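Exercise 7b. Backbone tokens:
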């Protein structure tokens, strides 16, 4: 008897499900969109959450970083009394000025705007360092350079491996990374508090 009841219930559910599906089709009930139709929305939803950058975003961030290195290093030549700091600052100005020029050329070819000044955080840092002198300035400058180069390498590594970035800018990021890593090594090896005077 139990088996008969189960068989009848199964048959009823099958007939009911078929009837509901037929009714929905007859009334033109809107069905869920196919998965392929919603995928583009899912793909476009948050490139930033995935760590991706657009060309314009990378150009802006890279240009500001480069301008900051040059500006801070110009200040170091004016304020520092340490030979190692001044030599490092000269290298920063030379290398980052060249990289900035290359970035501007690529951006111009792509009709992308390039910042001409640093952002507010770097402006504040520049203003603070401008009021320091001697060993106090040297220590602050080295600390900022360490942090900035760590951040710049992360930015350029991200761009170098990001398929959303154009080939020209990816190539720029890849070629610049070697210089940035060399700077990073140099600045992390500068002995804060033990730097000898240039005089």
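Sequence design result:
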């Amino acid at each position: 008897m139990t088996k008969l009841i189960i068989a009848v219930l199964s048959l009823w559910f099958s007939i009911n499900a078929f009837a509901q599906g037929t009714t929905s089709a007859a009334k033109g009930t809107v069905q869920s969109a196919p998965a392929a139709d919603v995928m583009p929305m899912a793909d476009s939803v948050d490139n930033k959450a995935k760590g991706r950058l657009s060309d314009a975003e990378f150009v802006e961030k890279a240009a500001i970083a480069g301008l900051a290195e040059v500006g801070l290093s110009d200040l170091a030549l004016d304020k520092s009394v340490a030979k190692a700091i001044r030599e490092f600052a000269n290298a920063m100005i030379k290398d980052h000025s060249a990289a900035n020029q290359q970035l501007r050329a690529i951006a111009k070819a792509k009709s992308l705007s390039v910042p001409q000044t640093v952002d507010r955080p770097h402006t504040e840092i520049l203003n603070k360092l401008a009021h320091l002198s001697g060993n106090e300035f040297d220590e602050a400058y080295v600390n900022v350079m360490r942090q900035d180069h760590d951040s710049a390498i992360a930015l350029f590594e991200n761009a170098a491996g990001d398929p959303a970035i154009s080939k020209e800018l990816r190539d720029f990021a890849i070629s610049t990374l070697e210089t940035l890593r060399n700077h990073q090594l140099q600045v992390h090896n500068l002995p804060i508090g033990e730097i000898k005077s240039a005089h």
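Instructor comment: The CA atoms of residues 74 and 172 lie 24 Å apart. The mean pLDDT is 79.
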